[in-house]
Amino acid sequence: MKRLRAVKKWKLLFWAVLLLVILALEAFYLRERPLGNKTAMPAANGESISMTDGMEVSEFINCQQERLEGMILQTQKDPQAETGILQVQLYQEGKLIQEWSASQYSYRGTQLKLVLEQPLEQVKGTELEVRLQGTGGDTGIILSTNQHPEEGIFLNGGEKANTRLCLSLIRENVDTVQVFLGVAVFTAAVWAVLFWLIQIKGWRQIHRLFLVCYLVMGIFQLFSVPMFTTPDEENHFLRAYQIAEGQLISQQNQDDSAQGVSGAGGELPAALKFGGGRYMADLKLYDLKQMAQYEIDENDTMFIKFGNTALYAPGTYLPQAVGIKIADLFTDRVLVLAYAGRICNWLVNGLLTALAIRWLPAGKNLAFLLAMLPMSLQQFNSLSPDAFVFSLAMALTAFVLHMRFTRKEPMKVRHYVLMYAMVFILCQCKVVYAPLCLLLFLIPRERFGGTKKYVLNIFGAGGLGLATCGSWLLISSRFLSEFQPGVDSAAQVSYILRSPVNFLGAILKTFDTTGGGLLKSILGEKLGWLTITTSFTLLVVFAILILIYVFLDNDIAKINFTPFTRAVLLGTTALITLAICASLYVQWTEYHSEVIRGIQGRYFLPLLLPALLAVKPPVKRVAGTGLQNQWMVPVVLGLNLITSCIVLTYALG
Fold it and tell me: Is Transport among this UniProt entry's keywords (predicted)?
């Protein structure tokens, strides 16, 4: 209590106000989407229906579920309309079950959620009827419809064929208030711990605070991000499982007439295909209940294709494979194996990133910010190897700068082992990031113990990287093929070599037309399978914080960040950017295109730290970094808690 009383009142006020703002925004975003286990909402591709005074609409539904707790209507709103009332009635086999009244001001967003007072049991196969009527003037509510050849609705008694309402039936309702209370308790508990660590215990070391925030977000996202809801996570799991079982090189399906990526995969337990080819973007937490029942039967195998990940080297999935192998010793449940791989990936990459932040002689706060971006956290909390690339790139950059500016003695054996290990694994992950090894030239020859050892080890590490990349390219080349119609990789390579100026023009035009979108993508505007839209306002705050810690943080003033250092950092970044663009131009873009297809912001996450350090000026406008940490850390954590609430609404609704 004495330490708490010693904290200045204005600091207590800051933390209290910030907590209230976070809780308010969490409540706001949790109300944006109706929550519940429900049927898929039909696409709104039909003619809209304005519920004016006297308008009557009805639809008959053959219920295909055992339990019904309500329904959700997809609507639009006309704020200029009168304040009429929409009357909704639900009938089962001609019997009135319940009726509701709603105005356009009684619900948020565009989805009207109607919950039954008493759930209906054993309703599968029964006929439901939904009747809607506008009363008391124009309601301002516009019903969305879906074109369907086997359905029809009734408008004022007359049938409108090939049309159905955009309506979703709720199997299991989720109370938004209860969800908010759970989130609020978690947030308040985290806030108390963070306040105690920073203000009472006096923690200022940013790598320790990163681990705390990383743990908090890992726990939250474990429940808010269902398995297989990040890009290609199902295929990442299949490749990681294959490696965990000792199959380091993927197989080609001999029965598949189409050669290349389309036929690449492996002979694996059939239970691993429990997704059944289903597009995973819309998986909810409720779907995991059924998935949890699937178990591996070693005697029941089939060839499963996962072409876009089959060509990745074994080292790419090292953390995931280790987690899967450990879990495999105790269980055969597929979902448990997948989560074990995800958790191990999260753990390894978090520790690597914390180590990198600790090593950095400058830019520690900046590295913390980059690692805590919503897009970075999504990569960490998935089976994607992109997180491994990000953490390895940050660790290698930090290792090099640590050796250049902090360490004064020659490297020891453990440093050599670490350096070669990072080069070896990084060059396995993705070939386009191999130029990061050029950063090794920044290590002074004194750290190697002389010029001879410097040359031997620099070129030895470079040779290891080239050998790793080259050997795996030879192995994986049989799995390579064009991903999109109209793509001719061989012709595209020839075109780049013949017309490098035109290729550079395509790069410039791509960044000119998509630059803003790429920046928002890097920050995390679209999460999941690019289906979860986060808050633009929160992203702006992230961007402002990054700019502050690039141009106003003075931690670089104490070291001699020479033009040569900046040139190597920028040059390496530019070379990798060129490699990324060339790869996508060859494999994803039609021949002779003026723009590059398939480019995404997350591909550039590993380049942010070296690029931003290269342009970081030696300013002295902010006095000390310890003072900044105690304000920046809670703000960043709060932004991520709010963003995760947005993600949670998609997992629950």
Answer: no
